[in-house]
Amino acid sequence: MRQRSVVTRLLGLVVTVLLAQLLVPSTASATPDPVCQPIDQSVTVLLTQHHMRGTLCTPAGATKVLVMVPGGTYNHAYWDFPYQEGTYNFRKAMNAAGYATAVVDRLGSGDSSRPPSILVTALMQAQAVHKVIQTLRGSFAKVVLIGHSIGSAISVLEAGTHRDVDGVVLTGMTHQPNLVNLATALTEIHPAMLDPQLSGGGYDPTYLTSKPGKRGVLFHDPGVVDPGMLAVDEQTKDVLSALETADSLGVGIIPPYSALINAPVLLAVGSSDKLFCGTGATNCTSATTVLNTESAYYTHAPNVSAYVATGVGHDLNLHPSAPQLQQAVLTWLSTHV
């Protein structure tokens, strides 16, 4: 009798545990995935129609959207990185915090249209991003523009021209680039039509990409590099146009536009970014040293903040410390937007 009683109690305990697992929702079901849908924004380039494409992902109840513009030779994969997503996927980190995200491909790259490269300028890219922002305005209370490198320059042009965003996050860009290292970096770029990986894409001669195996040297050194990340970075590389490079990073163009931005600004750089920091360039030792020079360029912004990733190169979001960048952006958003 005693043995039967013990068995009965054990069976009862098992049934109770199983019922509890069925009735109590799991963590995954308590935080459902955002609803993602394609972006297909029509834009006119010299009387011809083209399309800036991307993906809008909206968590339940989101009222603020972050529009993300990747850098040169990158596409949407920079922000929506398909490797160790808990570390490198910026888009998913923002969605998990309740923000909607609109990750776009610059014209000529990714899923967007490919106009003749001679027509693809940073100013034209900024106009296309502006159209995306205007479309999103009907669905969200706040719009924040986030760029990386050339995508940051495009963001400056858009925000300074149209003054239609509630915040601007600029990563991997300052107003005092390292001209010596930039000139060296240009030797590691070549026409996409000559690239073994991209040669079948039908690119015209002035669509450019990184030479095979050079992304570590260009965008990650001298920081710590995850070999798996670097392999995926090479696999997902894309293009930029020669004119886009010239007018986005031209020191004569960007400063007048940054002075017109009328929204809070967050600047984020790696302390070891060879393209924008170092001797003769911006002092990226700390947030204070960055603000000492950069804040003067944003005279109409109500607030300018800075985040410096210590020991990190140009691609902040593809460094193992990327979650710290993501948290810095989230903290800034909660305070300023």
TrEMBL record:
UniProt keywords, alphabetically: Hydrolase, Signal
Assigned GO CC terms: membrane
Gene3D superfamilies: alpha/beta hydrolase
Signal peptide: 1-30
Domain annotation AB hydrolase-1: ranges: 66-320
Metal-binding is among the record's keywords: no
GO molecular function ontology, one term from the record: hydrolase activity
InterPro entries found in the cross-reference section: AB_hydrolase_1 (IPR000073), AB_hydrolase_fold (IPR029058), AB_hydrolase_sf (IPR050266)
Coiled coil residues, start to end: none
Transmembrane segments: none
Keyword match Transcription regulation: no
Protein name: Pimeloyl-ACP methyl ester carboxylesterase
Record organism: Crossiella cryophila
